[in-house]
Every structure is written in C-alpha cells, then in structure tokens.
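Record 1 of the preview.
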Amino acid sequence: MAVSRKMADMVAGGSMIRKMFEAGSQLKAQYGEDKVCDFSIGNPDVEPPAAFQRTLEEIVHARIPLKHGYMANAGYTETRAAVAAQVGKEQGVKVGGERVVMSCGAGGGLNAVLKAILNAGDKVIVPSPCFVEYGFYAGNHGGEVLFAKTKPDFDLDIAAVEALVTKDTAAVLINSPNNPTGRVYSEATVRELGRMLTEKSRKVGRNVYLVSDEPYRKIVYDGVVVPPIFPHYPHSIVVTSHSKDLSLPGERIGSVAVNPEAEDAQLLTDAVILCTRILGVVNAPALMQRVVARLQGVTVDVEVYRKKRDLLHGALTEMGYRVYKPEGAFYLFPESFGADEMPMVEALRKERVLVVPGRGFAGPGHVRIAYCVDTAIIERSLPCFRRVAERLRGG
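->
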C-alpha cells in the first residue's frame, strides 16, 4: 500500500465539506458560476474591516528589523500580550501574555493542544453535531472522539457528557457558537459543565481538560453574548482564530490561551509551544501576528450575516423546513425530510444547490447550509429549496 492504513481509512472517509465543495466546482465549470448556489463551505464573503487594510499597509511599509524573520516559538511578545488582554476581557480573568501561544489558525492550535494532552488511547468527548475535523485531530495524536448527543435544540446535554467521562477521558471539546448548528451555550450551561467536570475529575483521578474552540465568538446576533469558561473551570483552554471575526481564513492566524488557574499551567503552556514545533506549524505567520496585535476587539460587520440569516431562515421556515434559528456563526442546520438526508442532498444538487450532509458533522437527518455567501445566491436558491420541499415533504 502506498500510504499508511490509517491515512487510507481517513482518505476513504474524507471530509463531506470538501467533497461537496469539489462537486460545486465541477458544477460551476459545467454550467457557469452564476448558475450554481454553493453553500458547502464556510468561506466568509464579508470583506475584512477597513482597519485591517490600513494596519496591513502601515506594517508592510514600516522599517522593522527582521520583519519576516523567525520569532520565539510562541509568537511575538507584544502580540501575545495583546491577545491575552482581549482574552482576559472576554473571560473576566486576568490572563498574561505568557499563557498565550500564537498558532497557525484554530486547526493548528487544536492539534498542538491535543498532542500536548493526549496519551495513546485517551478519549475526547465532543457534543454532536460538531465540526467534522475533530475526529481527525484527535486521531492524529493517538486519541479517539466520543460523541455526546445534544438536546433537540442543540443545547449541551450535561448528563450525556457525564456518562462518557472515565479514567481514559483527557478532554471535553466544545464549540460555541457551534458549527454546524449556530447554537450558543448559555453561562448557566457552561457553569454546570464546569461543576460536573470538577466532580468527575476527582472521581476518575485526573484533570479532564475543557477545550473551547471559539473562532465564531464574535459572530453572534440579537444581543447574544458568548459566556466565558475560565471562571467556571480551572483546567480549561481557549483556542481561536481570526478566520471569521476578521475574515482572514487564508492567513491562518490563531491562538491558544491556557487558563492561568490550571494545574501545571506553565508545563501545559510549554507543552503546547513544543507541539507547534513538533507538528511543523512552528511560528504563526509573522506579518499577520503584527497586524492582529493591533486589531484585538475589531470585528467584521456582523449585521451583514444577520440579514442573510433572517432572509434564509425565514424563507425556509415558510416553506415547511424545520430549522433552528442560529444565535451565532453563519450556518443553518435544517432537518431533512426523512431520517436519511442524502435524498435531500441529491435533490438539491440536481437543482444546482450544494449543501453538506449532516452525517459529516455527526448529525444525520440534517443538512448544513453555509450562508456566508452573496445575498444574490441566497435569493437565487429559494425557488430551488421550495421545489425540493414540495417534492420531499412527508417522505
């Protein structure tokens, strides 16, 4: 075999998101860009804030020694301090720059964290539906994901998570606002999760980490606020990126913040730093580190996404789709007409509308619609969604 058995299995499983994205590319080549409605991938269509362009130009033209050179593995001191100050505001806890590690996006950060905390055979509990890559990330480092089904409204089911915690549990990994559902977990829910993990950690004889993946923290609607996790559980880690809040997915700039109250917080931080080197994602991009250091707290115009959410959610609901109204992120996760979502996915594909099967997010019976697209695409898709609903309703 040309590749390892593990990788052969992963390739065979693949990413539903990427498969649908590639199918969309083929349809666009066949019929034309304006004849396809591609909702397959969460690629922000909102331009970065004007402050980003100004800051980028200033730094590009500034005379800075070793502007593009190596830096300390954890990142520039001034960038880590700026990120720590922002994390401290969000978490309501004083966080020093020494507890922040700059990463190559949230994906790079999560891989570094999981490599730092996982022993072979360890388990990571993930509420489902969830981001498709988590299983691959845990598998990279000898771990295994266990899915804890959420409630019908996609809120955390604390009892379901608790039932899975054993001596082999290394972490619980949450994502709020959630991809693919858009659910934001309340502070009461986070508080209860922290209480449960404190009790279970004592019983199983190890500190179970709470890892919060937060790239959508600032993409929220209707006055919703994403609650902190640091005050509610000491053994916690926040991983984020600027892919969504600054619309910079291609720049791969993110960070890891370790709760200063965590036991062995220094050792944990040092391990994450070392893991960035071991994984080959050492040194987050230098230019972007300098830029985002000046843009903490700056966010894209979220109102643009809210209008798209309301347009699509309102139309689908009127057509008879059952779909939770997201509090954050930029995805809808409607139920399919029937337990198997593939007939709906295929019916939409024939209408040249690309969505992702829910099974790719451990959420079968649903499809994911990424509405971070031009409003004209949403409007063009509505007759297609209506025809599919009329065809499949009651199936």
